[in-house]
Amino acid sequence: MSTDFWSPLKLSIEIALVSGIIVIVAGILFGRWMANRNFKGKLFLETVLLLPLVLPPTVVGFLLIIIFGKNSVLGNLITWLFNQPVMFTWWAAVIASTVVAFPLMYQSTKTGFESVDVDIENAARVDGANKWQVFFFISIPLALKSIVSGGILSFTRALGEFGATLMFAGNLPGKTQTTPLAIYMAIGSGNMSLAWSWVICMIGISFLMLLSVHLLKA
């Protein structure tokens, strides 16, 4: 097939992989910190962390523009550091995918860490393990199924991200045009055969990802 066909697929997978790595690391850290912990403001913080899951993608995209736009402090700092704004770049697509995929990873890892038997962790501490040894050799292995499931779901969500990416990263062929955006453009131009090809690929990848989650939990 032509380069024009593979380019959006390749770009989508690259963006989903990078955002997936970020989400997995952040999800594990936040999930472990929030699990079995009570403090003032926890409910508010958890609501904020899960908010992108229910917000319309256009709202997420709008907020990203406000946070990272040229009129924001963070946006100006990024422009000063890298000599270019982050909007309408490959990294903007990564940020958008990361934000919308994070809640799935966070919820899954928090549930996994909450299911870990605290007595096992305490026994390891009594035997001389420090908090990081307990974390890496006890907590993570015992919550591994939830972590892997969350990672797969997050990757799949990042792969299918559309609205926030369109608003924040734009629709630049070969640069930020992911497969969902390419499907949208193909339908708009009446190229249904090309749109169907991308749709079938996305359905196939998503099906395999979800099937692996079910097999993992079986």
Automatic annotation (TrEMBL):
Pfam families: BPD_transp_1 (PF00528). It is a multi-pass membrane protein. Keywords: Cell membrane, Membrane, Molybdenum, Transmembrane, Transmembrane helix, Transport. InterPro entries: MetI-like, MetI-like_sf, ModB_ABC. Residues 9-217 form the ABC transmembrane type-1 domain. The chain crosses the membrane at residues 12-31, 43-68, 88-106, 134-155, 195-216. Part of the binding-protein-dependent transport system for molybdenum; probably responsible for the translocation of the substrate across the membrane. PANTHER family: MOLYBDENUM TRANSPORT SYSTEM PERMEASE PROTEIN MODB. Belongs to the binding-protein-dependent transport system permease family. CysTW subfamily. This is Molybdenum transport system permease. It comes from Lysinibacillus xylanilyticus. The lineage of its organism: Bacteria, Bacillati, Bacillota, Bacilli, Bacillales. The gene is modB.
